């Protein structure tokens, strides 16, 4: 079974003072057995790497450009993230797909760029409420999975985050059975495409994961961790989730 991953997505939250939460997380869960990564805003990546230097906490970006450098005002490249000390990057988050019209092909190109910079890509896929209600979840997830991930993925370079869009930040989640069915479907698709590596790849769940539901979600077959937004901002909440994944 893959080692579980607790990934925090801070989104556009956090000034320098928020680094205290990283110290607090380390103090609260010093011996975590799962991998922990926090993806703060780009401004905090370097400072967070310094703070977490001797901790078991890795740092990631929330997006990267597909190119390594050039005339792309406001963007950040994968080598820049790596240069700042990041080791992961979230790609294709539904907020970026919705706000910036990111397509599967763009996410796939960004993933290749992330790999070239030795970053592990956390590629997000998931259906909207409309698609969920229309019973299209597996079609959407299958299409996004195929389109957003390059060939040659390994369990070291790729993490898949299943994030139903309607569950993000809403306090709603699918039932445990429903999460299990989608994760099982993703596992089968990964094994079909990547063979043994697909068996070892981590599939994490994201969408209103919190200290109360984390243990139940962590116990579902083929759930290898969580991508956590709101509940990753406070060390006390995130530590509960880390412990549930241990
Ligand atoms: C997310 O943004 O990836 C996420 C899962 O958010 P939340 O945990 O707040 O629903």
UniProtKB/TrEMBL annotation:
<comment type="pathway">
    <text>Carbohydrate degradation; glycolysis; D-glyceraldehyde 3-phosphate from glycerone phosphate: step 1/1.</text>
</comment>
<keyword id="KW-0324">Glycolysis</keyword>
<comment type="pathway">
    <text>Carbohydrate metabolism; erythritol degradation.</text>
</comment>
<dbReference type="Pfam" id="PF00121">
    <property type="entry name" value="TIM"/>
</dbReference>
<keyword id="KW-0963">Cytoplasm</keyword>
<dbReference type="InterPro" id="IPR013785">
    <property type="entry name" value="Aldolase_TIM"/>
</dbReference>
<protein>
    <recommendedName>
        <fullName>Triosephosphate isomerase</fullName>
        <ecNumber>5.3.1.1</ecNumber>
    </recommendedName>
</protein>
<dbReference type="GO" id="GO:0006096">
    <property type="term" value="P:glycolytic process"/>
</dbReference>
<dbReference type="GO" id="GO:0019563">
    <property type="term" value="P:glycerol catabolic process"/>
</dbReference>
<comment type="similarity">
    <text>Belongs to the triosephosphate isomerase family.</text>
</comment>
<comment type="subunit">
    <text>Homodimer.</text>
</comment>
<dbReference type="GO" id="GO:0046166">
    <property type="term" value="P:glyceraldehyde-3-phosphate biosynthetic process"/>
</dbReference>
<dbReference type="GO" id="GO:0006094">
    <property type="term" value="P:gluconeogenesis"/>
</dbReference>
<dbReference type="GO" id="GO:0004807">
    <property type="term" value="F:triose-phosphate isomerase activity"/>
</dbReference>
<feature type="binding site">
    <location>
        <position position="169"/>
    </location>
    <ligand>
        <name>substrate</name>
    </ligand>
</feature>
<dbReference type="InterPro" id="IPR000652">
    <property type="entry name" value="Triosephosphate_isomerase"/>
</dbReference>
<dbReference type="GO" id="GO:0005829">
    <property type="term" value="C:cytosol"/>
</dbReference>
<dbReference type="InterPro" id="IPR035990">
    <property type="entry name" value="TIM_sf"/>
</dbReference>
<keyword id="KW-0413">Isomerase</keyword>
<comment type="function">
    <text>Involved in the gluconeogenesis. Catalyzes stereospecifically the conversion of dihydroxyacetone phosphate (DHAP) to D-glyceraldehyde-3-phosphate (G3P).</text>
</comment>
<keyword id="KW-0312">Gluconeogenesis</keyword>
<dbReference type="InterPro" id="IPR020861">
    <property type="entry name" value="Triosephosphate_isomerase_AS"/>
</dbReference>
<feature type="binding site">
    <location>
        <position position="208"/>
    </location>
    <ligand>
        <name>substrate</name>
    </ligand>
</feature>
<dbReference type="InterPro" id="IPR022896">
    <property type="entry name" value="TrioseP_Isoase_bac/euk"/>
</dbReference>
<feature type="binding site">
    <location>
        <begin position="9"/>
        <end position="11"/>
    </location>
    <ligand>
        <name>substrate</name>
    </ligand>
</feature>
<feature type="binding site">
    <location>
        <begin position="229"/>
        <end position="230"/>
    </location>
    <ligand>
        <name>substrate</name>
    </ligand>
</feature>
<feature type="active site" description="Electrophile">
    <location>
        <position position="93"/>
    </location>
</feature>
<feature type="active site" description="Proton acceptor">
    <location>
        <position position="163"/>
    </location>
</feature>
